[in-house]
Amino acid sequence: MKLKSRISYWKDKRGRSNKWIAGELKVSEESVSRWINNKSYPSIHTLWDLAELLDCKVDDLYERIE
Fold it and tell me: Whole-model pTM?
């Protein structure tokens, strides 16, 4: 199973920047960029915090692709 990030969609929809997200989650901007570009994934705890920040469900942040 592969996952495609939809973080960029939600980030743009909410008018937030990678820098803002990184600051709120206390992670590097590089980490946020890697999540958006499918190079890595946030921890499950960070994923829940990210969904809360972007006012969406955890399921909304990634889509399953074949």
Answer: 0.91
